[in-house]
Specification:
Radius of gyration: 19 Å
Bound molecules: threonylcarbamoyladenylate, magnesium ion
Largest sheet: 10 strands, mixed
Distance between the termini: 37 Å
Helix content: 25-40%
Shape: globular
Order of helices and strands: EEHEEHEHEHEHEHEHEEEHEEHEEHEH
Structural class: alpha/beta
């Protein structure tokens, strides 16, 4: 076990994690996407602690993580057969489905809505913990609106000594939050892009996905600031990189080709490899006391949709 310099315990001890969660404590857990702030989904007072820690508005609902698809009907009802099939194909994995909730589900989880978000995460430590629970709520382990954490140090920095335990599952291999699909009506809708692409989902459910246009990050004036570093961030085209390098200002740069500028991070040209590094790169530059971060715009292709979504939200002034 290691103690982070700010005293949250960082360890791989899943028994202690279970014991703390049963007692109604909040513990940070690894998933394949990002780290989550976990609480027992059956204990309202524990769930309230998540909102307090994250400073998250109570209208913003939580995802319930379950151990296997068999637990789906504990939480959701009227599940369309295409939605069950989608879960069978992609779980455990970075897919969240929104379904009609069972009547007993706490409004603290759903933000007062009639739907509930559920997923089976693909991380051995978290799956081990989930075996002992009906469900565990776990929003990303960051302060509301800020960068998501992809390693224990990111969580420790955000929450100092406020957590009794950060379960150490190493770096998150996917690196951006799960794809969210609304399956609560007969019109499957993409609510949040992730590394499971719309193409993959459409090929499984054999019907087109609608886009949640009202919350599309591309709609002018409707872009929400989220997943954002504290340092101002701007997306630039490839032909603007040279002028950033020449400016000699105290800036950070995330780009694809090697350039002669301190605080430059060279990213992979493959989307999955890029996603796995994205938040780590943003955390690193955000901690470097720079006046600005510039990011070379990745390709506007399907497999980059989740990355471009997060970059646009990070570039929106808060
Ligand atoms: O990859 C992930 O999904 C990570 C890891 C930790 O599992 N979790 C995560 O949780 O990103 P969070 O709370 O940061 O984001 C959950 C999203 C929010 O945008 C929320 O609005 C949406 O899920 N959500 C939850 N319940 C919903 C519902 N009933 N209807 C629509 N959206 C919902
Ligand atoms: Mg989040």
């Amino acid at each position: 076990m290691t103690i982070a310099n700010n005293m949250s315990k960082i360890s791989t001890d899943t028994d202690t994690a279970c014991m703390l969660l049963k007692k109604g404590e909040v513990v940070a857990v690894p998933t394949e996407t990002v780290y989550g702030l976990a609480a027992d989904a059956t204990q309202d007072h524990a769930l309230n602690k998540i909102f307090d820690l994250k400073r998250r508005p109570h209208t913003h609902p939580l995802i319930v993580h379950i151990h296997s698809i068999e637990q789906l009907s504990l939480w959701a009802k009227s599940i369309p057969s295409w939605a069950s099939y989608l879960c069978e194909q992609l779980w455990p994995g970075p897919l969240t489905v929104v379904l009609k909730r069972q009547d007993h589900v706490s409004s603290i989880i759903t933000g007062g809505q009639t739907t509930i978000a559920l997923r089976v995460p693909n991380h051995p430590l978290f799956l081990n913990v989930l075996q002992s629970f009906k469900g565990i709520c776990a929003p990303s382990a960051n302060l509301y609106g800020q960068l998501s954490p992809t390693c224990p140090a990111h969580v420790a920095n955000a929450f100092q000594a406020q957590l009794p335990l950060i379960l150490d599952g190493g770096a998150c291999p996917i690196g951006v939050e799960s794809t969210i699909i609304d399956c609560s009506s007969d019109k499957p809708t993409l609510l949040r892009p992730g590394m499971v692409t719309a193409d993959t989902i459409e090929s499984i459910i054999k019907q087109p996905l609608a886009n949640a246009n009202h919350q599309s990050p591309r709609a002018p004036g409707r872009v929400l600031s989220h997943y954002a570093p504290r340092t101002p961030l701007t997306l630039i085209d490839k032909d603007q990189v040279a002028s950033v390098v020449a400016s000699q200002r105290q800036v950070g740069l995330i780009t694809f080709d090697n350039v002669n500028l301190p605080n430059t991070l060279i990213m992979p040209r493959e989307a999955h490899a890029y996603a796995a590094m994205l938040y780590k790169a943003l955390h690193q530059l955000d901690n470097a006391q720079l006046e600005h971060i510039y990011i070379e715009q990745p390709p506007q292709k399907n497999e980059w949709l989740a990355i471009n979504d997060r970059l646009q939200k990070a570039a929106t002034p808060h």
